[in-house]
UniProtKB/TrEMBL annotation:
<comment type="subunit">
    <text>Homooctamer.</text>
</comment>
<dbReference type="InterPro" id="IPR030656">
    <property type="entry name" value="ALAD_AS"/>
</dbReference>
<dbReference type="Pfam" id="PF00490">
    <property type="entry name" value="ALAD"/>
</dbReference>
<comment type="similarity">
    <text>Belongs to the ALAD family.</text>
</comment>
<feature type="binding site">
    <location>
        <position position="122"/>
    </location>
    <ligand>
        <name>Zn(2+)</name>
    </ligand>
</feature>
<dbReference type="InterPro" id="IPR013785">
    <property type="entry name" value="Aldolase_TIM"/>
</dbReference>
<feature type="active site" description="Schiff-base intermediate with substrate">
    <location>
        <position position="195"/>
    </location>
</feature>
<keyword id="KW-0350">Heme biosynthesis</keyword>
<keyword id="KW-0479">Metal-binding</keyword>
<keyword id="KW-0460">Magnesium</keyword>
<feature type="binding site">
    <location>
        <position position="205"/>
    </location>
    <ligand>
        <name>5-aminolevulinate 1</name>
    </ligand>
</feature>
<keyword id="KW-0627">Porphyrin biosynthesis</keyword>
<feature type="binding site">
    <location>
        <position position="233"/>
    </location>
    <ligand>
        <name>Mg(2+)</name>
    </ligand>
</feature>
<feature type="binding site">
    <location>
        <position position="217"/>
    </location>
    <ligand>
        <name>5-aminolevulinate 1</name>
    </ligand>
</feature>
<protein>
    <recommendedName>
        <fullName>Delta-aminolevulinic acid dehydratase</fullName>
        <ecNumber>4.2.1.24</ecNumber>
    </recommendedName>
</protein>
<dbReference type="GO" id="GO:0008270">
    <property type="term" value="F:zinc ion binding"/>
</dbReference>
<dbReference type="GO" id="GO:0004655">
    <property type="term" value="F:porphobilinogen synthase activity"/>
</dbReference>
Length: 328
């Protein structure tokens, strides 16, 4: 019998060799850190369904953004809870709303930090849908102007990039034209291109009070069963002018991230969403899993699947852990 000549274990024999052959290396520069902005001053309240994340007033958001920046995280993604809601979601493009205030304060304090804003209507509409509701249905085309207005108001506040998450058809093109017309051709679009109708958004909807008041989001967000449709959505958003394309959620959609990466040349972002975060936090709080190892393994899997950047509530912790690893 031949002796075993091929022994994969040789390349696992020590930390040094493992480091040499490691294919995927996480870096704080891979992360985008989400911020939840509420009205007021000096507010920092933990979000119960997402322990370790906070509702922040614009002044406090600057402090959180600086923490991220100092850890080597290049970007934040800004979400808002408005002071008022109406049928159209007009607080979404109100220049005095918490998001617009926070964006301008963060850009003043940290001009190098990339500030991305979530463009959607669901936090701002009384019915909680991501677009205009007409005759009990979410109307696509009348939503486009409202989304464009919102994107332009974020650009006026100083956003470097806008991230439409509504899943209306044609919104990337509409937002691109609106930005260009107002002199914001330099403002980029990170489109939530393949966004699925997912149960994993539950904690987020609690956190920002954006659950739909009737029906669900399945007439605009994608069916979790579909992969080819994701490629079609991505192709459309690229044709409409997207600069970065996103797959969301991440964990149950690693195959989609990989297919998008293999089929298109634009940078790919993925969103490690609230439900994914909450699962890890709950299990770790019960002592059922090791939080640090679990988080780093999950984030590595997203990067290995093809994500060039990961939007994650774990960003600050993960960046700290990566720094410790590098020192050790
Ligand atoms: C708004 C929006 C949602 C998320 C990001 N933007 C919720 C939804 O579409 O229902 C989810 C983020 C998360 O779960 O972390 N449309």
């Amino acid at each position: 019998m031949d002796t075993l000549r091929i022994r994969p274990r040789r390349l696992r024999a020590s930390a040094g060799i493992r480091a040499m052959v490691r294919e995927t290396v996480l870096d704080p520069a891979d992360f985008i850190y989400p911020l939840f902005i509420v009205p007021g001053q000096n507010v920092k309240e933990e979000i119960s369904v997402m322990p370790g994340t906070y509702h922040l007033s614009p002044d406090q958001a600057v402090i959180a953004a600086k923490e991220a920046y100092d850890l080597g995280i290049p970007a934040v993604l800004v979400f808002g809870l408005p002071e008022y809601k109406d049928e159209q979601g007009s607080s979404a493009w109100d220049s005095n709303s918490p998001v617009q205030q926070a964006v301008s304060l963060i850009k003043q304090a940290l001009p190098e930090l990339v500030v991305i804003t979530d463009v959607c209507l669901c936090q701002y509409t009384s019915h909680g849908h991501c677009g205009m509701v007409e005759n009990g249905k979410v109307d696509n085309d009348s939503s486009l102007d409202l989304l464009s207005c919102t994107a332009v108001s974020h650009a006026f506040a100083g956003a470097d990039m806008v991230a439409p998450s509504d899943m209306m058809d044609g919104r990337v093109a509409a937002i691109r034209s609106a930005l260009d017309e107002r002199g914001f051709s330099h403002v980029g679009i990170m489109s939530y291109a393949a966004k699925y109708a997912s149960a994993f958004y539950g904690p987020f909807r609690d956190a920002v009070d954006s659950a739909p008041q009737f029906g669900d989001r399945r007439t605009y967000q994608m069916d979790p069963a579909n992969a080819r449709e994701a490629l079609r959505e991505v192709a459309l958003d690229i044709a409409e002018g997207a600069d970065i394309i996103m797959v969301k959620p991440a964990l149950a959609y690693l195959d989609i991230i990989r297919q998008v990466k293999d089929n298109f040349s634009l940078p790919v972002a993925c969103y490690n969403v609230s439900g994914e975060y909450a699962m890890v936090k709950a299990a770790a709080a019960n002592g059922w899993i090791d939080e640090k190892r679990t988080v780093l393994e999950l984030l590595t899997s997203m990067k290995r699947a093809g994500a060039d950047m990961i939007i994650t509530y774990h960003a600050l912790d993960a960046a700290r852990w990566l720094r410790e690893c590098n020192k050790a």
